[in-house]
Automatic annotation (TrEMBL):
SUPFAM superfamilies: ITPase-like. CDD domains: Maf. Belongs to the Maf family. YhdE subfamily. Keywords: Cytoplasm, Hydrolase, Nucleotide metabolism. Pfam families: Maf. NCBIfam families: maf. GO terms for cellular component: cytoplasm. This is dTTP/UTP pyrophosphatase. Its cofactor is a divalent metal cation.
Amino acid sequence: MLREILKNHKVILASGSPRRQDFFKELDLDFKIQVKAIDETYPSHLTHSQITDYISQQKAAAFTELQKDEILITSDTIVWLNEAALEKPKNTEQAKEMLRKLSGQMHEVITSVCFTTSGFQKTVHDVTKVWFKTLSDSEIDYYIKNYQPLDKAGGYGIQEWIGYIGIEKIEGCYFNVMGLPIRLVYKTLSDMATR
């Protein structure tokens, strides 16, 4: 359906995330992938969704010559715990530390998605609450040894083993925890195509 709605547009997904790329394929959307490296630091006064909004907009700012028919999509995800952001761990020790912090706690997963054309920009975000059971050190070690926590905000993937055994409940969009609030992406692209 989106393919038809967006037949006069070219969609650029600026993400190296295989999960986000899979989501776009599942939406039956024609798109190309183009990633530009940026500095993902942010001003220290920003909190919560302000952080992900800012970074997704910074990712868009790296694209300075969009054509009239192009829609650029950039995004960013963080885990928000005890008034602090957990991003992607830099090493397995950091991943272990993050999972220990998440153990037995509720945290929020925040994803912002920025839609940019040559003359328009809109940023949306979604927040999902996630409750973890108390994780044992052996469960954390098993997950880190057998999966890839380093490319995921907060050091975990809800769709992986740790999600199966560790998550007691969620409130909000499951796909947002995987890195993309798909229904918001679908709605925003549909609205943009008919502007």
